[in-house]
Amino acid sequence: MLPRFVGRLGVADAVTIANASLGFVAIVVAALVDIHLAARLVLLAAIADGLDGILARRYGGTDAGPFLDSLADVASFAVAPAVLAFVIVSRGLGITFETVTAELLLVVGVCALFVAMAVTRLGLYTAYDTADDYTEGVQTTLAATVLGAAILAGETSPWLILAVTGAFCYLMVSPIRYPDLLARDAAIMGVIHALAILVPDVAGYTFPYALLTLGIAYMTLSPWFYWREDPQPAETDAHGNA
């Protein structure tokens, strides 16, 4: 007997499921191997998150697609970046697990809250965000990308990473409207994103810094200064989701 998904899921769904697997691998690598490799895997998962949307539009989506997308994003853009932040902060502050300290509780609390708010944002998006040209709150993919780019750029001060992680806890569920990127801007972002993964240490970490700069610029400026001249925004997430 064939598995139930045979004939029900499409090629875009396969990429979405691969995205979730990348999130798991990033968690294992962050905890046991190399934090920088884990950051590259999270960024690769973000590319997969955009690719499945392209494939869904090209070959057609499925009814399960939006649900698979949100579930995959929980692994790759909620749990994985929280683990990366926890590993960097706990190691940087010299936190051990032999005794419960205020610092340990703070780090665990902020990272757990990040996961909770990311899951909340994904659920709210799936249920309520129906606009074609904007979304409310920072996308979980972007939050994970900013954290991953910061790690690859060498910006790993434990208190800085903790502060950024804490800020995203609000930004992901804020009512701030973020416009969808135009196709040309999404393409530029995608190229820099790929280069940050492939050659992160070239020319003084140029591409991770560029990706980090673009991500921060989008978060801080786009709600007020991003003019949309192209009526067709780039659908950057799986099956039309953000």
Concise synopsis of the structure shown:
68% of the residues lie in helices and 2% in strands. With 242 residues, it is mainly α.
List the helices and strands and how they pair.
Blueprint: H1 11-32, H2 35-59, H3 65-92, H4 102-128, E1 134-136, H5 140-152, H6 158-171, E2 177-179, H7 183-198, H8 206-225
Antiparallel strand pairs: 1-2
Helix pairs in contact: 1-2, 1-3, 2-3, 2-5, 2-7, 3-4, 3-5, 3-6, 4-6, 5-8, 7-8
Give the low-confidence spans: 238-242
How many strand segments? 2
- End-to-end C-alpha gap: 36 Å
- Gross morphology is globular
Proportion of residues in helical segments: 55-70%
Please state roughly what percent of the residues sit in beta strands, choosing from under 5%, 5-15%, 15-25%, 25-35%, 35-45% or over 45%: under 5%
The largest sheet is:
2 strands, antiparallel
Instruction: Please state the average pLDDT score.
Output: 88
Tell me the number of structural domains.
1
Spatially, the strands of the biggest sheet line up as 1-2
Name the helix and strand elements from N-terminus to C-terminus, one letter apiece: HHHHEHHEHH
How many distinct helices? 8
* Helical/strand content category: mainly alpha
Rg of Cα set: 18 Å
